[in-house]
Amino acid sequence: MSTTHDTDRLTLESGLTVRPWAEGDDLALLQVWGDPENAMHHQDRALLRPSSNDPWSRCIVAEDQGVPVAAATILRSSLHPDKLSFYAEVAPDHRRRGVAAELLAVLEVEAGNCSATGLKARCAKRSAAQCFLKDNGFSKIQTTRRIVVQAGALRLPDLEGTGLDLQEIATGSVELSRLVAEYYNAVHDWDRAEMTIGKAQQLLLDDTTGASGAVILRDVSEDGDGAIRAFAVSYTPERTEDPADVLIGWNPELGETEAEDHVRSLLALLAARYPVELEVDDSMAPLKVVTEELVAAGDAEVDFEAIIYAR
């Protein structure tokens, strides 16, 4: 790689020139990339934006004779401090020329200015991106899926006599925020998280996140502690025939069998009349067991599946 006369530009061995991301690049790249293939692809493209120091991120664009054809970014999450997220996309007619690897190399030089010690990226199964990550030293650490559960997929539980009660709870509740933070940290031991009560409120429970309501299963038995056993947060303001976007979690102090029972009950209640959609990682073992059973039975379907790689 050699530097041109313009200090903001580099010339790659592939012949493309690289510069920082600029306003209007998203529209220019859309013309050569085409529309995103799915929701995950749309989310990943949204990571491409001007470089910043707070939060820390670097984003570059590769041009062919002045026309943007590829872009890549690395960024640090306030929740996951150990690994920088990496995303790159190259126009179809410029692929298989090592462009993504060259962009990664440029960004890795910048990563030396950040305290993170690793990189992570996600991709679709059996995709060109998966081959790229494997070829560049990344290893699989997690699989995440978006699952759509059909209405009435689970038999409704009879809570009477179980010592459990289904209750509504304010999304601004400190009790809920604390449990959401503990749950998030527990199921992200594969990518250490620093979720706090404040961050849980800001990132998952505030009105600006779309959180429109929450329900819990609470222990109301005579000899119980009154604690929340499982929770669900809805990000869909009104129930329609379209799947409601929900976050389901449980008290991480529970054993897996008990957590699975509570998740199954809560999911049955949520999907009694309308379909629901939720994200399930391999690390969410109790929820994964329930949703895999539903998928196998044809009562749920995988909207998309992503594999997370790290280096």
- As an assembly, this protein is single chain
Helix content: 25-40%
Number of helices: 8
The N- to C-terminal Cα distance equals 23 Å
Can you tag this structure with a few keywords?
single chain; about 300 residues; alpha+beta; 15-stranded mixed beta sheet; disordered N terminus
Structure description:
The chain has 311 residues and is of the alpha+beta class. 28% of the residues lie in helices and 32% in strands. The protein has 8 helices and 15 strands. α5 crosses α6.
Short recap of the structure:
The protein has 311 residues and is α+β, with helices and mostly antiparallel strands.
Indicate the topology.
Layout: E1 2-3, E2 10-11, E3 17-20, H1 25-33, H2 39-45, E4 52-53, E5 56-64, E6 67-75, E7 83-90, H3 99-111, E8 118-124, H4 128-135, E9 139-149, E10 164-169, H5 174-186, H6 197-205, E11 213-219, E12 228-234, E13 244-250, H7 256-270, E14 276-281, H8 285-296, E15 300-310
Helix pairs in contact: 5-6, 7-8
